[in-house]
Design the sequence.
């Protein structure tokens, strides 16, 4: 094991933690919800200064990992957005296609895998159910409260397993 592998991990959510999604929420308010348009608009997300600053700061002592409920098909756009913000490189764990379990389940599952051989310094996430589940599983959490909460996004994460 190299010294690099001894660095702890700082795990960051994307939507409403690093990226502001308010401009695309209207796609979730329609019936039926327009998931394709919702995710297609993600490259235009404005950065959230508080989350961006915390991510850059954490990179000084930690390896950064991104953990998102975005589906795998959004990988290319997500990588481009992270690079455009000048954020540290790191692996991105995305929702597998057709996996519609609640975010609090899928994210804690991935945290456990990551934490099996690396210390996790923090999970930074805006979803309070994800934060509660991560804390119950023993992970340190920073609750990202700097974006306006979205009932539609919360429902999508918890009830529909979509983001």
Sequence:
């Amino acid at each position: 094991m190299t010294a690099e592998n001894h660095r702890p991990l700082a795990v960051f959510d994307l939507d409403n933690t690093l990226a502001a999604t308010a401009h695309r929420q209207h796609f979730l308010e329609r019936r039926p919800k327009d998931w394709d348009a919702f995710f297609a608009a993600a490259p235009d997300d404005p950065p959230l200064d508080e989350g961006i600053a915390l991510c850059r700061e954490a990179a000084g002592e930690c390896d950064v990992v991104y953990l998102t409920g975005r589906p795998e098909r959004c990988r290319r756009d997500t990588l481009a957005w992270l690079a455009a913000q000048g954020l540290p490189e790191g692996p991105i764990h995305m929702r597998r296609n057709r996996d519609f379990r609640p975010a609090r389940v899928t994210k804690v599952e991935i945290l456990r895998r990551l934490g099996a051989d690396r210390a996790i310094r923090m999970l930074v996430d805006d979803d309070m159910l994800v934060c509660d589940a991560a804390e119950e599983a023993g992970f340190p959490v920073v609750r990202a409260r700097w974006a306006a909460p979205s009932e539609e996004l919360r429902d999508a994460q918890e009830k529909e397993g979509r983001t």
The beta strands are 9-12, 63-71, 92-95, 120-125, 141-143. The two ends are 34 Å apart (CA to CA). The chain has a mean pLDDT of 91.
